[in-house]
Amino acid sequence: MVNINKNFNNLSDGYLFANIARLIQEAKQKKPKLSILNLGIGDVTIPLSPIISDAISQATKELTNAKTHRGYGPSCGFDFLKEAISSNDYINLNIDKDEIFISLGAKDDISNIQELFDSNNKIGVSDPTYPVYIDSNIMAGKTDITLLPCNEENNFQIQPPNIPLDIIYLCSPNNPTGVSLTKETLEKWVKYAKDNDSIIIYDAAYEAFITSSAPHSIYEIENSKDVAIEIKSFSKKAGFTSLRCGYTVIPKNIKINSQELNKLWVRRCETKSGGASYPIQKGALSLYSEEGKKQTDQIIKTYQKQTSILKLGMEKKGFKVYGGIDSPYIWCKTLNNINSWDFFKMLLEKFNVVTMPGSGFGKQGDHFIRISGFTPLDIIYQMLDRINL
Amino acid sequence: MVNINKNFNNLSDGYLFANIARLIQEAKQKKPKLSILNLGIGDVTIPLSPIISDAISQATKELTNAKTHRGYGPSCGFDFLKEAISSNDYINLNIDKDEIFISLGAKDDISNIQELFDSNNKIGVSDPTYPVYIDSNIMAGKTDITLLPCNEENNFQIQPPNIPLDIIYLCSPNNPTGVSLTKETLEKWVKYAKDNDSIIIYDAAYEAFITSSAPHSIYEIENSKDVAIEIKSFSKKAGFTSLRCGYTVIPKNIKINSQELNKLWVRRCETKSGGASYPIQKGALSLYSEEGKKQTDQIIKTYQKQTSILKLGMEKKGFKVYGGIDSPYIWCKTLNNINSWDFFKMLLEKFNVVTMPGSGFGKQGDHFIRISGFTPLDIIYQMLDRINL
Lengths: 389, 389
Fold this sequence. Notes:
2 copies of one chain form a homodimer. The first copy, chain A, has helices at residues 16-30, 50-62, 79-88, 106-112, 132-139, 183-196, 235-238, 261-272, 278-286, 290-316, 340-351, 377-386; strands spanning 37-38, 100-103, 123-127, 145-149, 167-171, 199-203, 228-233, 246-249, 255-256, 259-260, 321-323, 329-333, 353-354, 356-357, 368-372. By secondary structure, chain A is α/β, with parallel strands linked by helices.
């Protein structure tokens, strides 16, 4: 008789978003005349740049012509895109194109990367955290997970612990706190990983939003190429959430018992995936043209402006606000020590305003809410106008 | 210290294609004036239908408009595509849209589907076989794999064994043999699965090429909705190999210890994937329009014609040929009992003709070569002209 993967039963209820959706429905019914202002979601709101759309259309049209038609693409991604990433995103950092793997989006690779590792490894994850780091490991029976606090006490700089961990997930700029890890913090982590023969999985999906002096890539840190995998996304900076494309860097330097991690990932991708869509990869390539850079910069600046108005507005109301400088998220402390869920519900019930309860991302996220600067300015102003506590 | 996933070391050398590529290079050097005729690959050769290209362009353009812009799509796929699949591909078979999951291509889901199951299951795979069934399981530490012969003795009708197996991969029309499983064979398998509480993973990627009375879907077989997952592809029938989109059906009827497999897969997709690209799903939708069906039919007919000319041509040369009736592949017995590799090398060295050695797909594939009917007609004629044994 067939047995299912019992690890599914160890997942916590996947109903954070479903719960929130239900509460939004209730709020709508209670105040049918007042619009719902949704500042909870982390999805993009600015339309796709025309240059990307044109590139995708042109690449698709190529496929209709017998001379330029293409079949299967390379499972690890097309060289044209890897070369553009290497020479633009890793200028002076010497990341070779064969160290870059085009993905179907950062979420997919963040979930899949654990396949490289044995189930006996000790895993470290920040608390609060993007839940995929934990859930993807639990589903694979990898349950030895240590939560590392990321809170006001350590200035949201998750610190290496006194115990050895084998795999550490770092997210910078952090989702949900919106705070980047400093160069100093990252140096500590790279040293820790070297000392303990551990691997860092570095999620830099929000890197494009950094305005402080925080590193944009972990490869700015000395020796990091021996220990760190970096995962990046086109989703947030270029509106790719519906297009699905990102990339993962696995330096050839990383060797475990003389096995190159890079080669294992090549084998994994070639065996298990057909890679990302050709026209979508051509769309991603267009981001690296002069016009593409200009259009992307404009989008990022708009989100940054929205986030800064949101941050200032909340501060003026007396809130203690973190994040929002290197990230489109602000991490806002609740008033009067109210817990996340109660505060979230109060904002929803009183003002029809949706945020994200911080404790949904982990215990250390309690007494915070995450508010999204992806929200269009008119909604932000309406929200600031409505909230009177 | 971090440990890698040791299961990678249990994979057989992944160099079948690399080996072939090297031999092709050598052949080129030996006969630089004679072109290489490649009938080995199973990739599509007819350009993409204009209707698909137009649909993708239009959907991408939508994303550039503030009113029609979209962010994250549903991880399990858009309803518009699931509904089209349900009402077209499962006409009279009552497959609900929520039983359909849009994938990033059949290969990706074939690889990922094993995540639903425990590592202690006994797995059955045909020999010869599409290697992904085996490799994806081995990488996940699922190594209890029984090979079930699929050969001339059983008319390429893989038969249920006398021992209980928990998970069985069936591929019909089969890659590499090109032969479909008959209704009678499938009925035996569904009965076997019911009797043994096993699950059938049914790969129907080549279903559109069937011209015999073989079932197009396993759901044509009574009781199959209790035991069978079906995986399908837009790759071969509609030239989607470079676009990446397919679908997987998991009926709600399938319950293991009262857990619905369908719900587990929803959880898996939502946790680990951002789903397929929106414009690509719109491209797939266009296949179900009247014009889309017409253009797709035309493509399939062209491949079928090529395959039938290939089959007849080889038969006229005295080869015993299987397949080619329900599939774009013919499975051609070598002459004089020569083994696959020697025969493959001989065709390459003497005539600069590339085929696929059958033993590359498993021991039972020895003494056969696979020849692809995706090959354009002028290449097929040249090949038939060149081969004189």
